[in-house]
Amino acid sequence: MKPKSGLPFSDQLVETLSPQAASLVLASRWASAANRRREGLRAAHAQDAEALTDLLFSYLRLKSSKGGRISELTLQHYAESLRKFLAFTGPPESPQYALNQLEPEVFEVWLLELQTQGLSASSVKRHLYGVRNLMRALAWAKVLENDPSASVRPPAESEAAHTRKSALSAATLKALLALPAQMYPNHPTRAARDSVLLLLGGSLGLRAAELVGLDVGDIELTLGLVTVRGKGRKVRQVPLTQRVSRALRDWLSWRSGLKATSPALLLSLSARNHAGRLTTKGARDIAAGYYQALGLPPEVWGLHTLRRTAGTQLYRATRDLHVVADVLGHASVSTSAIYAKMDSQVRREGLEAAEQALWEGD
Q1: What is the structure's pLDDT at 7?
Q2: Is 93 exposed, middle or buried (0-12, 13-18, 19+ CB in 10 A)?
Q3: What homologous superfamily does CATH list for 166-306?
Q4: How far is C-alpha 235 from the chain's CA centre?
Q5: Residue 298 and residue 168: Cα distance in Å, rounded?
Q6: Per-residue pLDDT reduced to its tens digit, 71-80
Q7: Which pLDDT tens digit goes with each residue over 21-43?
């Protein structure tokens, strides 16, 4: 970028951002290079989690490829990784490892410790990437000369992705979707809400953040469409099936009686947040209750299990990865390929067809 007369370089960078992202940067203590280094040194020396998180967020918004479009969920994950790493390095007053004197081996020891705590290889990898972005932010602030974690590699998965991540069978999904009405016959409002939550995840494949981020205005029952704001704030429209449309009409009828001021489609029914937007944790807890009622193991209790199930069922019905990618909001068809691998029925049919072709001439 060529300098413009009368404009500091940091101001020129801000001009390239969206108004919202620009306001975040300008209001930040990290806006100027001199202030960034001074505040960065202080935060690193004190191992100040709040200040370091603020530095990390400012760096990601300004320097990452997604910039101002980076999701709040990603920021939360990276903040969690930062806190875990600071807990590992030791208390601020007497840390075992100072942030400005880290060697690659420190990160490797930390990754081993995370694995001994029972974290999966994918979770360990996510934490490494979160802390790696912190190191890059400190290098951006001139606190570090370079990223000391750059040569560190995350642990490899021992299994292929499609064997690690399970989807529910068609029979199990049907049983799950029938549970809200069975478990809450005297609480039709809850049954209606939970049915919509499970259907949007298990039939349409919405992500957790997409589910709780839906507003009533995103539902167009006449056209049979729902507008979904996905990763990177990309917007897509997903068709509503007849079953999902019926469940939505039922829930919207019960929802109107709650007199909610929130525009959210899915509302909390807890005393603490009654008629407020359902949180991601709340949605996960709801799904976990139904998984547990079916006797399913804890490793499948996540909302993403519903999304994987929707993807698998959609591929089984269409055999078209482009349709799967379009409905689930995948940036690449290659991402959707895992649903073909996860479906054992598809593989079995392929083997049977190959065997038949081999022997049909006999």
Answers
A1: 34
A2: exposed
A3: Intergrase catalytic core (1.10.443.10)
A4: 16
A5: 13
A6: 777 888 899 9
A7: 545 554 567 888 889 999 999 99
How many residues are recorded in the chain?
A: 362
Measure Cα distances from 282 to 67, 174, 210, 310, 326 in Å.
Answer: 29, 22, 14, 21, 27
List of E strands, the chain: 219-220, 225-229, 235-239
> Could you tell me which residues come within 8 angstroms of residue 160 by beta carbon, excluding any fewer than 6 positions away?
341
Residues of the chain with CATH 1.10.443.10: 166-306
Long-range contacts of 344-349 (CB under 8 A, 24+ apart): 345/316, 346/315, 346/316, 346/319
153-165 per-position pLDDT tens digit: 988 755 444 444 5
Position 7, amino acid: L
* Residue position matching structure tokens 């413009």: 4
Residue range 83-132, pLDDT digits in tens: 999 999 998 888 889 998 899 999 999 999 998 888 888 889 999 999 99
For residue 262, which amino acid is it? S
The two structure tokens encoding residue 36: 């960034």
Q: Which of 163, 64, 85, 170 is nearest to 128 (CA)?
A: 85
Tokens for 14, please give them: 């801000």
**Long-range contacts of the stretch 13-18 (C-beta < 8 A, 24+):** 13/62, 17/61, 17/62, 17/67, 17/68, 18/67, 18/68
Tokens matching residue 34 = 């001199």
Distances (CA, A) of 33 to 44, 59, 138: 16, 12, 12
Please tell me the predicted confidence (pLDDT) of residue 324. Answer: 74
In the chain, % of residues over pLDDT 90: 50
Please indicate, yes or no, whether the overall pTM of this predicted structure exceeds 0.85.
Answer: no
Q: Is the pLDDT score of 1 beyond 50? A: no
pLDDT of residue 11: 39
- Choose between 117 and 64: higher pLDDT: 117
Q: Which residue has the tokens 């379009």?
A: 326
Q: Which two tokens stand for residue 53?
A: 């998180």
Q: Which residues of 210-236 are buried (b: 16+ CB within 10 A; e: fewer)?
A: bbbbbebebbeeeeeebebbbbeeeee
d(CA 36, CA 52): 11
